[in-house]
């Protein structure tokens, strides 16, 4: 998971199962994944999802439908009971090899309270024994990208909740991931801060050429950010419906205030109501 990122092989027009719709190469292929916990909770049942290069996919669903479980399985933090999670042309085990770097942004910032921001953000590179002379320019670059360029010497307690979340995104950025997994990163923030961070994430997604899998409870957030939304249902956890959000990027306030956005939100709410009832 922590190996140096290098350039991925050139995209090809063929997926293992045939031609790639739209020419986009699959990054992760989740196939017939079940997860049954030790207490016999069936958290996931026959989940199929193909994540393609450049996708911004939201996993949207009520509490307990298995969103975090699925994300943790993709990250290799938990094992599927059965089924497969494959990377393009290779098994999951190759994560951490060149071109297969991923990052995970958790629900809370999980910063080390005793360390200044630069040290917090440098942590993944320190763990890889990257020399300080090499890591510090990357740390400064990442902090600047999330708008915290002037705060590298600050302690987490000196920052607002939104700034702490930005710092945790900077810590993910320094690893130069190609796939970014985000588990409800903005759920605890007020609406204005969440909107601002949504815009930041879309900018980084575009600039960095990321593929993102994003967990959220919020219909509004899912529609604003995503090109695809997988609506998940509980008991057992499964993907009940997939919505495509055709609105072009970049998206901003114009999109947020548009009839098109309202219509997509209505559709996503309706899908969510169906699985929650
Ligand atoms: N370690 C575990 N052991 C037993 N059951 C678990 C474990 N982790 C999760 N579960 C159960 O699996 C189901 C799916 O949980 P999960 O956290 O993946 O859902 P979620 O959709 O992410 O929920 P939330 O939106 O509340 O975070 C739930 O019923 C949960 O109680």
Structural features, described:
- This protein is an alpha/beta fold and 277 residues long.
- The protein is 34% helix and 24% strand.
- Helix 2 packs across helix 3, helix 2 (117-127) packs parallel to helix 4 (161-173) and helix 3 (132-145) crosses helix 4.
- The N and C termini lie far apart (38 Å).
- The model is unreliable at 1-21 (pLDDT under 50).
- Adenosine-5'-triphosphate is lined by residues 37, 39, 41, 43, 61, 63-69, 237.
Query: Class of the largest domain in CATH?
Result: Alpha Beta
Classified in CATH, the superfamily of the largest domain is P-loop containing nucleotide triphosphate hydrolases
Give the fraction of residues assigned to helices: 25-40%
Average predicted local confidence, pLDDT:
86
Structural class: alpha/beta
Distance separating the two termini: 38 Å
How many alpha or pi helices?
A: 8
Strand order of the largest sheet: 8-9-10-5-11-12
**Sequence stretches where pLDDT stays below 50 over 5 or more residues:** 1-21
User: What is the alpha-carbon Rg in Å?
Assistant: 19 Å
Helix-strand pattern: EEEEEHEEEHHHEHEHEEHH
Largest sheet: 6 strands, mixed
In the CATH classification, which architecture of the largest domain applies?
Answer: 3-Layer(aba) Sandwich
**Total strands:** 12
Bound molecules: adenosine-5'-triphosphate
Strand content: 15-25%
